[in-house]
Structure formats: C-alpha cells, structure tokens
Amino acid sequence: MKKILIVDDDPNIVDYLTTLFEDNGFLTFAARNVKEAMELARKEIPDLITLDLEMPEEWGPRFYRKISQEKNLKNIPIIVISGFPGCTHAIGKAVACLQKPFDRDELLKIVKDNLK
Amino acid sequence: MFKKILFATSTTEASDHAARVAFNMAQSYDANICIFHVIGVPTRGFSQIVMDVKTKEKVEIDDEYIAWVKEEIMVYYSKQLEKAKSYDIKVAVGFPHREILREARNNSPDLIVMGGSTGDDEDSVYKKSMVGSTLQRVAKAAPCPLLVVNRPAASFWGGISKVVFGTDFSKASDAAFKFAVKLAKDLGCELNLFHALDISSLHMGRLLTQDEIESQIRESLRCIRGRYLDELKGIKDYSFDVWEGLPYIEIVKYAREKHADLIVMAHHTQKSSNEDARLGSNIEQVIVRAGCPVISINK
Predict the structure, then answer these.
(1) CATH tag, B162-297
(2) In a mutagenesis test of the A interface, which of B194, B222, B228 is the best target, namely the one with the most A β-carbons within 10 Å?
(3) Residue contact B214–A89, C-beta within 8 A
(4) Contact, B114 vs B104, CB < 8 A?
(5) How far apart, in whole angstroms, are the C-alpha atoms of residue B223 and residue B135?
C-alpha cells in the first residue's frame, strides 16, 4: 500500500486529507510541523508528501530543503497545498501546487499520476 | 559491460588523454583493448603511396612499414601495455573515420574510445572549440557507444561512480537512457538525470517571464518522472533536475556540480534535417567542453 505523508498545521485539512486518501486506498501519516514531518519521513519513507507552506516555527520550503539533502527522501514527489495565492513556484521541484480550497478530484488525479 | 574496447588513436598527444581512460577502463573491467591506428590516406585511388598522418611524409606501404608502425605504437604505449592484460594492435590505411567504422562493424566492440581533434598547431585556437571531422563522422555512424575525451581535464579518472544522463526527451535519448541505466546498474553508480530547458532560441526573441520558465521546468520534471522513473528501480542513488539556459553549458555545469565521471547523451537530437543532425550541436559542444569523458549513443 502506498504511503502518503500529510504535512499541515491545520487539523481540519489534515482530517480531510487523511479521510480522502484512506478512502482511496492509501496509507497516511500526518505531521503538524516540520520537526514531526522530518521524523516521520525518515521513519516511514513515504511515497508522496503533501506539504503546506506556512506553518508555525519552520515553513514548508525549509522542510523541502531538508529532505532534498537526504538520499532516501530527495526523490519523493511533493504536492504543495497552501492557502497562499500565487504560491505556484515556492518549491521549484514540487510536482504540483494547489491553492486552498482545492478540488479533491484534481488532487486525487495528481496523487494517482505520481503513484502509478 | 565493457569486454572489448576499440581505442582509435592518432598515436599523438591529442589521444594521450583518451589513452589514459581507455587503458584504465580495460584494466578495471578486464577488457580486451584494441589499439587502432590509421596510418594515412593513399595519395590517389589504390596507390601504395600514403601520406603518413603522423610523420606527414609520403611513404610506400608494405609489410615492413606496417610492422614498423606497429612497433612504434608499442613503444609509444609501452608503459600502458605493461599493465594491459589483453590487447591487439591494428593499423589500417584509408580515411580514418571509414576505417574506424569498418573495424567497429567487423569486431563489434562494446565501446569505441577516441581523443580530441589533432588539429594543426596554427589553428589550434579554433580546433579547440569544435570537434574534429573524424570524430563527427564516427559519432554519426558508430554501431556502439562512443566515449570521447576531448580535454586533458576530462581524463583524470578513477573509474565511474557518478553518471550524468542528459536528455531532450527524443527517441534517441531513450536509447541513451537504456545504456545509462544498464551502466549504472552494472557498475553500481549514481545516476543523475538532467534536462536543460533551452531558453535561448525557442521563443523568437521574446523574453520569458520567470514564472513561465518555472512552469516549463515543472513540466519537464514531470516528463522525466513519467518517462524514466519506472526504469530506475535497482539503482542505488539517482536524482533528476531541470535547469534553464543554454543546454550545452548547463549540462557541463551540472556535471561539474555533481562531480560526474561520465556524461551520457544521445547523438541525434530532435532536429531532423540532415544538415543539423550532423552531430547535434549540443553534444558536440558538450564533448568539447566537458570536464569528464562523454559517451555518445548513436542508436
């Protein structure tokens, strides 16, 4: 079963994404901040990560910078999901960037395309 | 992976750097190395009088002269040959590119190794920035991968541990990718997939905004994932990157940044016209500029 790591500080988004992904046959893990996310990523080596940009303490791009230094994690596809308008290129190597509120079908399509 | 290496040499300084890599590879992979030298071109038709490319003298070709040339080659490479486990020395008469290709067809080596342009001293300034005509012609028709060491800096070599594969998403690149994957798996090396987004000529002089460039980069990254990711299973370490700029410069920069030991690229680019397909100008420039050996894949 493919694993998805959800990184977001908003519990409503985490709940929504968890339900959405689990209903579609994925295993999920959630982290509320970058520190938790790094620990989970190293432990579980997810197949895909959804990442919020603005979070308490460290922000999403800093998380990306950290995982891109690690051999096991650097190639994991990242989908940015953020409330920021115009955040499309905040993380250059993200596979997609969605703005909240996002279309669930569009998100699922991107996830499935990247987890073939 | 490399059991038969055809080292095409002018037996001059221009081939010394390639010699270092060729002999080192032969030793590392227990390969047979065939040192192949073309003496020169007959003055006319099937004349026995040949202009020796090395001595620049007109000579009459007979068994004795050929034996002398072989002896000279043995002396020139004596140090390397001491360590070589299995080697042949062959000489031929004719146009260098034709003879090299003929030898490659007859003996099906796994790899041809060539050096840079011999050039004449007085035009060396120009010669240094373009590949020689023999190299161009061999690259165009080689039946196996061709490894080129053009600059002395490209030859300081201790085996292959990091490979850069440059792609333009053409069919020819897919063939080069297969070779790069096989190489990375067989030799257990890191494979870095790279695409350079050409922002110089495609847009008729219109300046692209950075957002447009970055959107295209994202699209190219998606393309790399979609096209190549499935084949990368079993490779210990890999990465993919897309940089914008002048493709050949970006590939050379990327290889430098990654400390690459080898660049693998397809010979034919997307350009279809015969004139342009001579040697895709990108790989031509990469060969000339790279700080490591470059393997050109023809088919």
Answers:
(1) 3.40.50.620
(2) B222
(3) yes
(4) no
(5) 32
Instruction: State the DSSP H helix or E strand holding residue A60, giving kind and residue range, or none if neither.
Output: helix A60-67
Give yes or no for B238 touching A (CB within 8 A): yes
- Dump pLDDT digits (tens) for A49-60: 999 998 888 898
Tracing tokens 């020169």 back to the chain, one arrives at B40
Q: Is A85 on the interface with B (CB under 8 A)?
A: no
Q: How far apart are CA B193 and CA B188, in angstroms?
A: 16
Q: Which of B228, B199, B221 is nearest to A96 (CA)?
A: B221
Element (H, E) at B221: helix B210-228
Residue ranges matching CATH 3.40.50.620 in chain B: 4-152, 162-297
Fold held by B4-152: Rossmann fold (3.40.50)
Q: Are A88 and A21 in contact (CB under 8 A)?
A: no
Query: Is the pLDDT assigned to residue B282 strictly greater than 60?
Result: yes
Q: Quote the DSSP letter at residue B97.
A: H
Is residue B283 within 8 A of residue B265, CB to CB? The reply is yes
Lowest mean pLDDT of B73-82, B155-164, B177-186, B198-207, name the range. Answer: B198-207
Cα within 13 Å of Cα(B234), Cβ side: 10
